[in-house]
Every structure is written in structure tokens, then in C-alpha cells.
Amino acid sequence: MLNEILLSLMIKKKIKNEQVVDFLEKNPDFFINNPNTLKKVNFPIKKNEEFDEKSKVVPFKDWIIESLKNVQKNIIDNARHNFLTQQKIHESVIDILRIDNVKDLLIFIKDVLPSKFNIEVINIVTSNKTISIKYNLIFKNEIIINKVYGKKNQLIMDAVDNQLKIFEGSNQEIYSNAIYSLGQEFFSIPSLLVFGSKDKHFLNNKAYDFILFFSNVVQEKLKQFSNE
Description:
- The protein is an alpha+beta fold.
- It has a domain at about 100-225.
- The chain contains 8 helices and 5 strands.
- It has helices at about 1-10, 15-25, 30-35, 60-100, 100-115, 130-135, 140-150, 210-225, and strands at about 120-125, 140, 155-160, 175-180, 190-195.
- Helix 4 runs parallel beside helix 8.
């Protein structure tokens, strides 16, 4: 309804051009949210030979259309990413349920899953030095872990905090990460399940729910071995 009112006012010139410009500047997504409005708006025609290659001037209508294409592309890309991630996680959960000892579980998590998920690191960070050596986990002192550890089962996805140096032993520089706060049933102290990627994999919260689900499965599996 708002777009009809705006068009009516523009056509009848009951408001000044400056007011229309002001409205659009304050509502930059107006045409994206109301794409049908474009059919009723006239734009100056600009022939290809008049295109200013040096200044890269693009007709406003072309810019709007390209923006709409980008929005749709992002939606499709996200849907595809989520579908593929869901499929991989379901397959991995089935594999995890079949494992009957903690050593094989941690080997599967650290050595098999990263390549399956197309990331560089999946591991557990703990301040229990004995366990970290026994299972080749990431050892960090409790002060470092407590800077990241939230409430139990909390998942955060963000750029890597290089000051924490969680991934300093990795063969590749890690740019983004997902960090899950494990319960204390197996490690008896605050510990983290971490996912590390050399690219922006975890910056847009893509597949957040799927990674949270997977992390919960890992935690429940660890509980089964809490007496080992």
C-alpha cells in the first residue's frame, strides 16, 4: 500500500522531488521489498554507446535490477549451503552413533570430519593437560578458555580472535570459527568444541542450527564415555 501512495504522490507531484529523494534515502530497500513498483516507474533510457566506461555510471534501473538479482542469488546460495551442510551432518551423526569408544570418536572428529565439512580444523580445547596429550586435543589454560566459554551448549560463530591463539598449532591460518561450550560431564572442566576455517565460512551464521545440532550430538556421545 505504501508503494502505491508513494507512486501516486510522485505522479501527481503533490510533494517535492526532494521529499521523494529523502524518503528513498531513508528506505534504501524500498524497491527491493516492493519490486513490482519498478513496473510503474519511468527511467531515463541510456544506450550502450553512451555508457561512461571511465566513471562506471550505471543507469538507476539497471542498478536496481542487479541488486534484486544479488538478493535472490544470496537466498539461493544460502539455501544450497544449508542443504549440503544438513546432508553432511546427518551422515556424520549416523557415523558417530556407531562409534563405541572415546578414542575412535575423537579421531573421527579431528581427522575425518574437517575434510568432509570442507574446513581446516575440528577439535576440542581443554585445560586438562593429561586428556589433551592422551587424545591429541588442543591444550589451553583455563583463563583463555573462560574468556570464550559461555553457558553450557552455547554456540558462537565469528572471526577468529588472534589474541586467544586457539588455532596457533594449525598448518593453515584460521580466519573464522564456530565455538561450542561443552558440558563438563566428560572433561570435568569447561571445554570447547571448535570449528576453524581459513575463509569466511562462519561469519554469516550460515547453517547455525545444523552446527548447533551436531555439537549437541557430540556432547551427548561424550557423556556415554564419561567414566573412561
